[in-house]
């Protein structure tokens, strides 16, 4: 039926410009064929019957005839070699046209991503320099900072590839869901309307089954991309256990510990101090010890560092390139029994030791200038990645909850004056540990992604091959052109019908048709000019569904952001320095997960974000196509179609102009990348402090507060943009059809003389005016429509049908 309709349109086009075409230009068409085409051009009621023409319309018609004569003299309306816009579909072309061009670009993109994914997987599997251990391959092993940087860059690349793949898939899905004229006519005959030009699911009930099947495969193949693609590459980080041993240079050089100074501390467990020093014997080292690295080189096992270097090196909860540390002090560290002594923080800053007595406890209760400090008195101090924070030993108070490095009462601003354990620090001896952080590649996830990628490429190819003749109404221009060529009788007499009228009353007219007067009065409307806002274009259901996704993200994001900020720096600069997707020790979930379980958990927000993007995309598209629709009431211009003929304009975008679509697409990619850095899979190998062998694995998910906050900011920008543009007003006059096929069709019943309207610049307006007054049988009813003829603005209060 679609091809027959296209051929009929071609005949009508030639009838409109018959004088301009000679026999040489149309050798394939006989006069009989011209007449046959002209006779089949209209199947609906006309509004330009001679007895119903108003004087104003007769004046417009004369002007239109003059325009047609000028067109005949100036030359052909259609390009040479194209007798009709619809004859283009059956012709074989080297490159596809219309929506097929975008589908071909989408296919090329899908194939490129598929080849890239397959090539990387084979490369990692087959490359002997990479270690493939079952389902996981190691792409890089070594410096942990390099692994982190590579991971961030690879995730950016993955988000670019997934965005490109999903954009192409969404484009083809929108084309598949776009109806052709046959499907629209069938739906209208059942008093059902379809969406034109916007992503939707409603149309799937009324389109051909083969396109529905392809659509569902494209939809289902997006699931593994959203849930898995971001985790095909992940990191296996390293965290070292270590001990902290305060000592003196004599002891580190092999001599006995100097106990002379302890004699002055008879009241501070001097005997226990001597016993404690003897317990240090197993920790003696040889300063000249070396360690052999995996690349065959030999380096000193211990390195001298200044106080400032030492403080900075152990600034992170997880350390990978250093291990055990010896604090070489000028005076010995004095051990105090925590059962008899307590460390107090003074209100004015600083600390002091106080012996615990009944009197001192009473004094503490009466004096608010003291605050007890939870002192960790274990020596040597064992630092474990499993216990946060692992570097409390850097604080003067040695509080088990750690301290703020910016607190000068704990740590001096001049790090060279840092005195751990209350004694002057000469230097540090720090164990050098070879890093073995890994950038790993999951073959299972990669195979699932490749299969999904292959399904998408195959579906797009099938769409081009099997559905290449699908004359889809991809844009509203496609629909307007079709309805102008062959008006739909089911929407006849409803020229002021809006989207809302169709949704509320079209089914009502089904039984009202039994009463002709009721149906006629319902269809005839008095023109009331109103400047509606863009917010009126999408339905209430679409607004609710769209902003529900934003509300869900916001409701879930607020407590997550609050939890993520707990134990984080309050200073914005220092908070920013915590980074994107980095592990601080206090930003891990308190339970372990398997590899695949952690991957699914980390990528679950991606599904919500994808739904939010699609919902807002549909919302924006509805408003933009409604703006395009309304623009035809204020200026005359050619239709924007996918396969232009005559003066029609070619379109490179569907519903949202590129100046908006490109920033939105980039914002979507940023959105998903920020989400991947907000909640991420964490794999950490913990090494034992004595042998440096892996003794434990931490497998869970981590979170970063800065990306979480930025994700919510980007989501708010997207949501606020929708609210902002919804306040823009449409020009008054033209009924608001939005994407409703029946409302679009109702505005496309041109005068019968206007046979070439679809290929000429058109405008919406009144071609005849009704009388001002109550309706009666003798009253003339006006008519508004899209036409290439001159139009006037409808008159307020007049009846139009």
How many helix segments?
21
Spatial shape: elongated
Structural class: alpha+beta
Tell me what portion of residues adopts beta-strand conformation. 5-15%
Q: What can be said about the biggest beta sheet?
A: 6 strands, mixed
Number of strands: 22
The spatial strand order of the largest sheet comes to: 1-2-14-3-18-19
Mean pLDDT: 75
Low-confidence stretches: 1-54, 63-92, 263-273, 348-352, 360-376, 509-518
Helix content: 40-55%
Distance between the termini: 29 Å
Rg calc: 38 Å
Key terms:
801 residues; alpha+beta; 42% helix; 14% strand; elongated; DUF6536
Provide a compact summary of the structure.
Keywords: Membrane, Transmembrane, Transmembrane helix. It contains 21 helices and 22 strands. With 801 residues, it is α+β, with helices and mostly antiparallel strands.
Please give a structural write-up:
α4 (99-126) packs antiparallel against α5, α7 packs across α18 and α16 (540-565) packs antiparallel against α20. The protein is elongated, with a radius of gyration of 38 Å. The relative contact order is 0.15. β18 and β19 form a beta hairpin. The chain has a six-stranded mixed sheet with strand order 1-2-14-3-18-19. A five-stranded mixed sheet has the order 7-13-8-4-12. A three-stranded antiparallel sheet has the order 10-9-11, with no helix packed on it. Helix content is 42%, strand content 14%. Residues 1-54, 63-92, 263-273, 348-352, 360-376 and 509-518 have low confidence and may be disordered. It has 801 residues and is α+β, with helices and mostly antiparallel strands. It has a domain at 242-433. This is DUF6536 domain-containing protein. Residues 99-245 form the DUF6536 domain.
